[in-house]
Specification:
With 132 residues, this protein is mainly β. The protein contains one helix and twelve strands, in the order E-E-E-E-E-H-E-E-E-E-E-E-E. A hairpin with a 3-residue loop joins strand 2 and strand 3.
Amino acid sequence: MNTIRTTTVAAAGIAAAAGLLALAAAPASAAAPHGCASSSVCFYLKKTDYDANRPTATYKDATSGFQTLGARAKGAKAVVNNRGGRVQIRYLTGGRTYTACLDARVTWAPVLPEYTVTAVRLETPSACPPRP
């Protein structure tokens, strides 16, 4: 059976799921951190895309469920949440599915090599569990 586990990821820390999620807060003064427009969640297939501030895919529309990522986002090496609220990112590792909740204005970079990012969920209000 494929289990889905949820982890909350905050700008101020590192969360554990099937390993460590390395995260850094986006600068408060940056209007478009790493080229990610306001109210967007951006994906970067390669580190060079992230370093060049060139998202390979951008998601903005809120939906009631997960949006399966297309070829320009699936397996991304970095994710930037430049929305005002938390979003969920689904990824696979070791044959299991996990969901990470990214706080507003958080960058997840680098995504660990053993993780394959597969879906995003943008909802208002967020489906992420309340913070402790």
